[in-house]
Design goal:
Two copies of one chain form a homodimer. The first copy, chain A, is of the alpha+beta class. The first copy, chain A, has eight helices and ten strands. The first copy, chain A, binds a DNA duplex through helix 3.
DNA sequence: ATGATTTGTATATTGATCTAGACCATTATG
DNA sequence: CATAATGGTCTAGATCAATATACAAATCAT
């Protein structure tokens, strides 16, 4: 099975075999890979060689390793369409996965220049800042820091904490519908905060999305800067 | 262009680039590859690394190296259909290449057991043995030792030497048509003789074909053991 | 013939890959 | 809590890959 001296390293050949088994459906997302010992046995190589193969799969975002537990096949990337009507929970449910949102913290503050401009406020106008994390099937997909104008949306943190849903939080403040008015997409390298909140290694790619939501009257109600784990999400724009 | 530390050796990547250029038509058969020095420059690697890449292409039969001269793209393998009516020159001409045959030597002898059986003779019946080499565009394709019954085909060596054509030599002996009655295909590793006559390295693969031709009346007229350079020929049987 | 060009060979050095073995840290399980 | 299972880290040595030089041998052009 393994060809030595043909210009392809052993660890890469092993990685390609496992990758093919994932792509071919032999290894379903969420299932545990054979243990390092088992792979060592199967391929007839040293454990370190298997580990290097697994490391390359981790770097590609195909598997996730947990010390003491095992190596698991990552879920297929979530397809995240960005349109004027984007609802995280609907997107996740639409792909047969279980959405969840969690409030990380909140505070009241004066709007920064950037936020004031986005929400059509004056600098230092009061806003409530909300930090939240979002999950699909318990796996972190994104985290965000968002700003809502005060006093109109004073209730948002409490309702969001209780429901995990921005849509519900806005509804509690009398906004029954909203749409996305602006989206900017960038990319960055995960820092310590991204690493902790998305449960990824520092250095992995992150999609950074600045968005502005407006109510049916076109009044800005929410500015958000979201950090998506790029290994777990594929944005679709238009199409 | 070259990715180091990704599990694929540098020499293999270089070989794949050159192979793609050959397959893509950028390097026509017969043309000379850039010199080792030029390739060293182009890929930014050591000369030995280029040499290993070239060696892998030689091993695949894609190029041929001549010390002091250069490295040349091999011709595409000649497709050699084996049927009841097989004529070397017609096959070669049919592929827009220039056929040639050369007499290497001849002698009269008594038929060996194998030849006697093939030609329907008794052992030690007189035959003329002919050794010949066959070329397409000047490149050696095969060499063969053949046996013809005597006295019927005494003229064969002289005519073959003059024309380079077995068909013409047989015609001179009154055989206007012939067909292949038996073919056995085997493979071997080139020995010193193969190496010299086919201009290939010892150890390269060789197709060994034993065939018997018969005249229109079904009388055996020629036994042949041909050695084909496997890198330059693809046999097609049936189809 | 002569010299320049081009491939062939040899040796040595450095770094990457693979193997081997030992021990630690985390997780799962009874 | 104790134990086993599993991945994480470290050291050391063997082999392979790539570099760096030097020189030999064959070919080609003049």
């Amino acid at each position: 099975m393994l060809a030595r001296g043909r210009g392809v390293t052993v660890w890469r050949q092993i990685a390609e075999v496992i990758e093919a088994e994932i792509a071919g459906g032999g290894l379903v997302p969420g299932t545990r890979l054979p243990t390092e010992a088992a792979l060592t046995e199967r391929f007839g190589v040293n454990r370190h060689t298997v580990r290097q193969a697994v490391k390359s799969l981790v770097d590609k975002g195909l598997v996730r390793v947990t010390q003491g537990s095992g190596t698991y096949v990552e879920a297929k990337p979530l397809t995240y369409p960005i349109s004027t009507r984007t609802r995280f929970s609907e997107i996740v449910v639409g792909q047969a996965r279980d959405p969840a949102g969690r409030l990380l913290g909140h505070s009241e503050a004066g709007a920064s220049l950037e936020i004031a401009e986005a929400l059509d406020l004056s600098p230092e106008d009061p806003v409530v800042m909300v930090e939240s994390a979002h999950f699909a099937d318990g796996v972190p997909i994104s985290w965000a820091v968002t700003a809502f104008p005060l006093p109109r949306f004073a209730e948002v943190p409490a309702v969001y904490a209780a429901t995990g849903s921005i849509t519900a939080a806005l509804a509690a403040c009398g906004v029954s519908d909203y749409r996305r008015a602006s989206t900017k997409v960038g990319a960055a390298i995960a820092d310590a905060t991204d690493s902790a909140r998305l449960e990824i290694a520092e250095g992995r790619p992150v999609l950074v999305i600045d968005s502005i939501n407006v109510d049916p009257d076109g009044v800005p109600i929410q500015w958000a800067r979201s950090h998506f784990c790029a290994d777990r999400v594929r944005l679709t724009v238009g199409g």
